[in-house]
Design a protein that fits this description.
Blueprint lengths: L1 E4 L6 E4 L2 E4 L2 E4 L4 H8 L25
Antiparallel strand pairs: 1-2, 3-4
Amino acid sequence: MRIDETGIPGTYRLLPERFEDERGHFYEAARPGELTAATGLSFEVRQVNNSVSRRGVLRGIHCN
């Protein structure tokens, strides 16, 4: 997984590595240890969602 800091302080972009073969594809959505190592912030996963949107739709992550 690649973790990039964005131009907004304290926000990061997570780019999971996709593994694909003749059966389909798989990717790991998040690994808390890697996120903490890259950002210095504690990260507790409570929910992970995957959605497919129509072309032109932009979605974001909501957290508190």
